Each structure stands twice: as C-alpha cells, then as structure tokens.
C-alpha cells in the first residue's frame, strides 16, 4: 500500500466525517435520555459538531497544501517559516471557530458540541496511525520539474549524437 500525502489526507477526512457522525448521534441519544436537558438541545449540539467537522476538514486541506508548498522550496529556512505560518493560521482558525461557537446563541450552536467535534481531528490521527506501519515511508507528490517536451528533445539529441559517433 502506498502512503501519499493525498491518500492519507483523504483517509483522515473520511475518519473525521465518521467520528463526527458518531459524536452527533451520541449527542442525540444523550439529549433524548436526559429529560433535564431540552430535547431541542440535540440540534444545536449537532450544529456544533458539524461546524467543528468542517473546520477540521479545512485544516487538513490547508495542511496538505502546506506540505506540497514546502516540498517545492529549495532552502530549509523558508520551508520552516512557511510551515510555522500555516500552523499559526490553522491555530487562529480554530480560535475563530471557538469564538463563533461562544458568541452564537445556545439555541443555534452548542459550544460543547464544537469542542468535542474539534477533538475528532486528534482522534482521527490516532486511529489512522493504527493502520499505518511506523516504518512506512510517506511519499510526497513531487511535481515534475522536467518538461516532457524538453525531455523528448534531449533524448532525440542524444540519439543523434550517438549515431554520429558511430
């Protein structure tokens, strides 16, 4: 099995979606079992989980993009700065989503649903790690730096030079 950045990112997204659905269903069951909570509290909880799920998917896509950008940089200093910048942006994005969950009315978004939904990213990483061997190489989708037309021209020139040498 080949472990590319795209394949791993897609699997993490799939696991996040599955875990978010499980958490949302668990929230509905919890709100149905406890009559002290309003039964209508399940919908804001599910909205909070869905909001966190979308945020986690966006963060994975940003991380994939950051890895692809960094693999194209030649020097290590700009790569480190680029990764730190992307990390900071993902952290700020998480803070903004939490702030939105705090400021939203309780009948629209449940803050605890958002917090629990945020942890699905960490859980997805741990779950995926169970299925990837620790010594498996992670392949990065390196863009082709060689132009196919130029490569064909070089091969033809080499063949012509070889014939002339005979």
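-> sequence recovered:
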């Amino acid at each position: 099995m080949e472990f590319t950045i795209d394949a791993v990112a897609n699997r993490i997204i799939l696991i996040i979606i599955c875990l978010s659905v499980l958490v949302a269903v668990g929230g509905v069951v919890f709100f149905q079992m406890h009559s002290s909570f309003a039964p209508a509290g399940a919908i804001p909880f599910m909205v909070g989980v869905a909001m966190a799920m979308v945020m986690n998917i966006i963060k994975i896509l940003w991380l994939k993009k950051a890895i692809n950008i960094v693999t194209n940089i030649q020097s290590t200093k700009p790569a480190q700065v680029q990764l730190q910048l992307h990390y900071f942006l993902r952290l700020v994005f998480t803070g903004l989503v939490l702030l939105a969950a705090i400021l939203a009315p309780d009948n629209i978004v449940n803050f605890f649903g958002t917090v629990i939904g945020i942890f699905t990213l960490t859980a997805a990483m741990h779950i995926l790690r169970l299925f990837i061997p620790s010594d498996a190489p992670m392949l990065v989708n390196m863009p082709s730096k060689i132009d196919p037309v130029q490569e064909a021209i070089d091969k033809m020139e080499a063949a012509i030079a070889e014939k002339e040498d005979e």
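The mean pLDDT is 83.
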